[in-house]
Amino acid sequence: MGDPVTGPEAAGADARGPGGARVAGVVLSVDPASGEPPFRQLMSQIVEATRRGVLTPGTRLPAVRTLAENVGISTATAAKVYRELEDGGVLEGRGRSGTFIAETDAAAAALARAAELFADRAAAAGAGVEDAVDAVRTAFAHRA
Predict the structure, then answer these.
(1) For the segment 38-66, what is each residue's pLDDT rounded down to a tens digit?
(2) Which of 23, 59, 70, 71 has the fewest other C-beta atoms within 10 Å?
(3) pLDDT value of residue 3
(4) Mean pLDDT across the chain, nearest whole number?
(5) Which residues fall in a coiled-coil region (predicted)?
């Protein structure tokens, strides 16, 4: 199959893809064999496509029910994906108009990506949130 974000099957407009949902050239799908929970897989795909500029600010995403049906997950899981990404500033809910990729500036996007990478590395090193935040504060203090 190709890259689930921009592989050959992602070429069409919004539609149901093979085992996924197409959104502006991106196929969102869930790999049941993955050890990663479905909501995390979808969140990662949306964030990565946004970071790479494939999903641009203002792009409308499918309704929660449509995403759930096309990807093969529950509506509760699809709603969780959107809610988490809205809380993180990646998506913007506009009521009955739908859910869209949020408007962001390049500096904010770069900072978010740096924070995500740091959080991944800190967690891999066994650090908790408080220890990680303390480490960042210490690093900034040494820059002054």
Answers:
(1) 999 999 999 988 888 888 899 999 999 99
(2) 59
(3) 43
(4) 82
(5) none
